[in-house]
Amino acid sequence: MRPCVFIRTVALWLALLPGLVLAQQTETFGPFELHYSVVNTTFLDPTVAATYGITRGEKRAILNVAVRENLADGSKARAMELQGRTSDLMQQQALEFREIREGDAIYYIAEFSFINEEWRFFEIEFRPEGATQSYTYKFKHQLYIN
Predict the structure, then answer these.
(1) Count of domains observed in the chain
(2) Of residues 105, 117, 123, 113, the one with CA closest to residue 142
(3) Which domain does 115 fall in, by range?
Protein backbone atom coordinates (compact mmCIF):
# COMPACT_ATOMS: atom_id res chain seq x y z
CA MET A 1 0.00 0.00 0.00
CA ARG A 2 1.28 3.48 -0.85
CA PRO A 3 2.31 5.77 2.04
CA CYS A 4 -0.30 7.96 3.67
CA VAL A 5 -3.30 6.25 2.01
CA PHE A 6 -5.28 6.36 5.24
CA ILE A 7 -4.51 10.03 5.88
CA ARG A 8 -5.39 10.93 2.29
CA THR A 9 -8.67 9.01 2.46
CA VAL A 10 -9.73 10.74 5.69
CA ALA A 11 -8.64 14.14 4.35
CA LEU A 12 -10.58 13.59 1.12
CA TRP A 13 -13.77 12.74 2.99
CA LEU A 14 -13.31 15.71 5.30
CA ALA A 15 -12.95 18.00 2.29
CA LEU A 16 -15.93 16.55 0.43
CA LEU A 17 -18.33 16.38 3.37
CA PRO A 18 -17.79 19.52 5.45
CA GLY A 19 -21.36 19.63 6.72
CA LEU A 20 -21.37 16.03 7.92
CA VAL A 21 -18.11 15.66 9.81
CA LEU A 22 -15.80 17.81 11.84
CA ALA A 23 -12.79 18.81 9.79
CA GLN A 24 -9.37 18.39 11.27
CA GLN A 25 -8.83 20.62 14.27
CA THR A 26 -5.54 21.92 15.69
CA GLU A 27 -4.53 23.08 19.15
CA THR A 28 -1.12 24.46 20.13
CA PHE A 29 0.80 23.37 23.24
CA GLY A 30 4.13 25.24 23.36
CA PRO A 31 6.15 24.08 20.33
CA PHE A 32 3.70 21.23 19.62
CA GLU A 33 0.55 21.17 17.49
CA LEU A 34 -2.08 18.57 18.30
CA HIS A 35 -4.09 17.64 15.19
CA TYR A 36 -7.29 15.66 15.67
CA SER A 37 -10.44 14.66 13.84
CA VAL A 38 -13.50 12.54 14.53
CA VAL A 39 -14.74 10.55 11.53
CA ASN A 40 -17.66 8.15 11.09
CA THR A 41 -16.27 4.81 9.93
CA THR A 42 -18.81 4.63 7.10
CA PHE A 43 -16.84 7.44 5.41
CA LEU A 44 -13.82 5.15 5.14
CA ASP A 45 -13.33 3.06 2.03
CA PRO A 46 -13.94 -0.61 2.98
CA THR A 47 -10.50 -1.62 1.71
CA VAL A 48 -8.76 1.08 3.74
CA ALA A 49 -10.76 0.16 6.85
CA ALA A 50 -9.87 -3.52 6.42
CA THR A 51 -6.18 -2.69 5.93
CA TYR A 52 -6.10 -0.91 9.30
CA GLY A 53 -8.42 -3.33 11.12
CA ILE A 54 -11.17 -0.74 11.54
CA THR A 55 -14.72 -2.03 11.94
CA ARG A 56 -17.08 0.01 9.78
CA GLY A 57 -20.63 0.65 11.00
CA GLU A 58 -23.25 3.37 11.08
CA LYS A 59 -22.81 3.81 14.86
CA ARG A 60 -19.02 3.59 14.86
CA ALA A 61 -16.41 6.35 14.60
CA ILE A 62 -12.69 6.90 14.99
CA LEU A 63 -10.66 9.58 16.69
CA ASN A 64 -7.50 10.33 14.69
CA VAL A 65 -4.72 12.16 16.61
CA ALA A 66 -1.26 13.36 15.57
CA VAL A 67 1.38 15.72 17.00
CA ARG A 68 3.86 17.88 15.11
CA GLU A 69 6.68 19.88 16.62
CA ASN A 70 7.30 23.34 15.17
CA LEU A 71 11.02 23.75 14.49
CA ALA A 72 13.06 26.61 13.03
CA ASP A 73 13.27 24.77 9.69
CA GLY A 74 9.66 23.52 9.54
CA SER A 75 7.67 20.99 11.51
CA LYS A 76 8.21 17.33 12.29
CA ALA A 77 5.84 14.52 13.23
CA ARG A 78 6.44 13.22 16.73
CA ALA A 79 5.59 9.93 18.36
CA MET A 80 3.87 10.30 21.71
CA GLU A 81 2.69 8.57 24.83
CA LEU A 82 -1.07 8.85 24.64
CA GLN A 83 -4.15 7.90 26.58
CA GLY A 84 -7.69 9.10 26.38
CA ARG A 85 -11.31 8.55 27.13
CA THR A 86 -14.66 9.42 25.69
CA SER A 87 -17.97 9.77 27.47
CA ASP A 88 -21.55 10.75 27.02
CA LEU A 89 -23.80 11.97 29.81
CA MET A 90 -24.07 8.50 31.37
CA GLN A 91 -20.99 6.40 30.71
CA GLN A 92 -17.27 6.64 30.05
CA GLN A 93 -15.11 4.53 27.73
CA ALA A 94 -11.31 4.30 27.61
CA LEU A 95 -9.89 4.88 24.14
CA GLU A 96 -7.43 2.28 22.88
CA PHE A 97 -5.09 4.05 20.47
CA ARG A 98 -3.11 2.27 17.77
CA GLU A 99 -0.01 3.92 16.33
CA ILE A 100 0.23 4.05 12.54
CA ARG A 101 3.37 5.10 10.69
CA GLU A 102 3.33 5.86 6.98
CA GLY A 103 6.49 7.43 5.64
CA ASP A 104 7.23 10.44 7.85
CA ALA A 105 3.66 10.55 9.23
CA ILE A 106 2.86 9.26 12.73
CA TYR A 107 -0.71 9.20 13.92
CA TYR A 108 -2.94 7.36 16.36
CA ILE A 109 -6.46 6.06 15.89
CA ALA A 110 -9.03 4.83 18.40
CA GLU A 111 -12.44 3.38 17.57
CA PHE A 112 -15.61 3.94 19.58
CA SER A 113 -19.36 3.55 19.21
CA PHE A 114 -22.02 6.25 19.53
CA ILE A 115 -25.75 6.96 19.42
CA ASN A 116 -27.26 9.19 16.72
CA GLU A 117 -27.15 12.92 17.52
CA GLU A 118 -25.12 12.19 20.65
CA TRP A 119 -22.60 14.62 22.08
CA ARG A 120 -19.36 12.80 22.90
CA PHE A 121 -16.85 14.33 25.29
CA PHE A 122 -13.16 13.54 24.79
CA GLU A 123 -10.16 13.92 27.06
CA ILE A 124 -6.68 13.25 25.69
CA GLU A 125 -3.51 13.15 27.76
CA PHE A 126 -0.32 13.09 25.70
CA ARG A 127 3.43 13.55 25.98
CA PRO A 128 5.24 14.07 22.67
CA GLU A 129 8.62 12.46 22.18
CA GLY A 130 11.24 14.94 23.43
CA ALA A 131 8.74 16.96 25.50
CA THR A 132 9.54 17.87 29.09
CA GLN A 133 5.89 17.75 30.15
CA SER A 134 2.56 16.09 29.42
CA TYR A 135 -0.49 17.92 28.09
CA THR A 136 -4.24 17.43 28.47
CA TYR A 137 -6.84 18.48 25.93
CA LYS A 138 -10.63 18.22 26.22
CA PHE A 139 -13.24 18.75 23.51
CA LYS A 140 -16.75 17.67 22.53
CA HIS A 141 -18.20 16.56 19.23
CA GLN A 142 -21.73 15.71 18.12
CA LEU A 143 -22.09 12.57 16.01
CA TYR A 144 -24.75 11.56 13.52
CA ILE A 145 -25.64 8.35 11.75
CA ASN A 146 -25.11 8.82 8.02
Answers:
(1) 1
(2) 117
(3) 5-143
